[in-house]
From TrEMBL:
GO terms for molecular function: metalloendopeptidase activity. SUPFAM superfamilies: Duplicated hybrid motif (SSF51261). Keywords: Membrane, Transmembrane, Transmembrane helix. It comes from Muricomes intestini. This is Peptidase M23-like protein. Residues 54-100 are annotated as: Disordered. The chain crosses the membrane at residues 16-37. Residues 149-243 form the M23ase beta-sheet core domain.
Length: 249
C-alpha cells in the first residue's frame, strides 16, 4: 500500500511537466507563426506599394504619350495634307497651262482651205495615182479599182512628216493600210497617213508641218508587189479629194 501512494505523486508531476512542455512548444509555434506572418505581411505591403508606384508611373507615361500624340500627330497630318494639296495644285496648274498652250497653238496654227498647199510626205515616186473617176490597176490584187489616195513609194524606216499642221483625230490599224494616222487640219480637211510603224503620237496631239507622223513600214499583203509605200489620202468633209491638187510644185 505504501508503494502505490509513493508512485501517484510522481505520476502527477510527470503529467504536469508534459503539459508544460506542450504549452511551451505551442507557444513557440505561435510566436514563430506570428513572426513569419508579420514578415510576410510586410513583404506583401512593400510589393503592393511598389506595384502601385509602377502603375502610377505607367499611367503617367501613357497620359504624357497620349497628350503628345494629341498635340503633334494632328498637326503633322495637317501639314501633310497642306503639302499634298499644294503639290496637287501646282501639278494641276502646270497641266492646265500645258493644255492651254497646246490648245492656243492648235487654234492658231491649224488651218487649211482650198488655197493651202501640202508638202510631200514621203521620198519616193507615186506608185498608184488618186483616181475616183475611173478605175486603176492594182498589181498585188491583179484587179482594177478606184483609188481614193496616193500610193507613194519609199524605203522601210524612213521618216514620214506631216504635209500640213493638224491635230491627231484617229490612230488605227487596218488590214489594208496597217497603222494609220488621221490629222484634222481644219475647215473640214483631214489627211490620212497609212502603212506606218513606230508612231510617236496620241489622239489629241498637235503636229506641226514637217513633224514626224511615223515611219514607213513594210507593205501589207494588199501592196506586196508595189513594195514599201505611204498611203496618203486627203479628205474634205469626209470625202476623198485629189492630194495632187494641193501639192507644192
Amino acid at each position: 500500500m505504501n508503494k502505490n501512494n509513493n508512485e501517484k505523486p510522481f505520476s502527477l508531476k510527470g503529467k504536469g511537466a508534459a503539459v508544460g512542455i506542450v504549452i511551451c512548444f505551442v507557444a513557440v509555434i505561435v510566436m514563430v507563426g506570428a513572426y513569419t506572418f508579420n514578415n510576410y505581411e510586410k513583404k506583401m505591403d512593400a510589393q503592393l506599394a511598389k506595384a502601385e508606384e509602377e502603375t502610377d508611373e505607367l499611367t503617367k507615361e501613357k497620359s504624357e504619350a497620349t497628350t503628345t500624340n494629341d498635340i503633334v500627330l494632328p498637326e503633322a497630318e495637317g501639314n501633310t495634307s497642306t503639302e499634298n494639296d499644294t503639290e496637287d495644285s501646282e501639278n494641276s496648274t502646270q497641266d492646265d497651262a500645258a493644255a492651254d498652250a497646246n490648245t492656243a497653238g492648235s487654234a492658231a496654227e491649224v488651218y487649211f482651205d482650198a488655197n493651202s498647199l501640202l508638202t510631200w510626205p514621203a521620198s519616193g515616186a507615186v506608185l498608184i495615182n488618186y483616181s475616183m473617176d475611173q478605175t486603176v490597176y492594182f498589181s498585188t490584187l491583179e484587179q482594177y479599182k478606184y483609188n481614193p489616195a496616193l500610193v507613194i513609194g519609199g524605203e522601210v524606216g524612213e521618216v514620214i512628216g506631216a504635209s500640213a499642221a493638224g491635230i491627231v483625230s484617229n490612230i488605227e490599224q487596218t488590214a489594208q493600210t496597217g497603222i494609220t494616222v488621221t490629222l484634222d487640219m481644219g475647215n473640214g480637211y483631214s489627211a490620212v497617213y497609212g502603212q506606218l510603224k513606230e508612231v510617236p503620237l496620241e489622239i489629241g496631239d498637235y503636229v506641226a508641218a514637217g513633224e514626224t507622223v511615223g515611219y514607213m513600214s513594210e507593205p501589207t499583203k494588199y501592196y506586196s508587189v508595189e513594195g514599201p509605200n505611204l498611203y496618203f489620202e486627203l479628205l474634205k468633209d469626209g470625202n476623198p479629194v485629189n492630194p495632187m491638187d494641193f501639192m507644192e510644185s
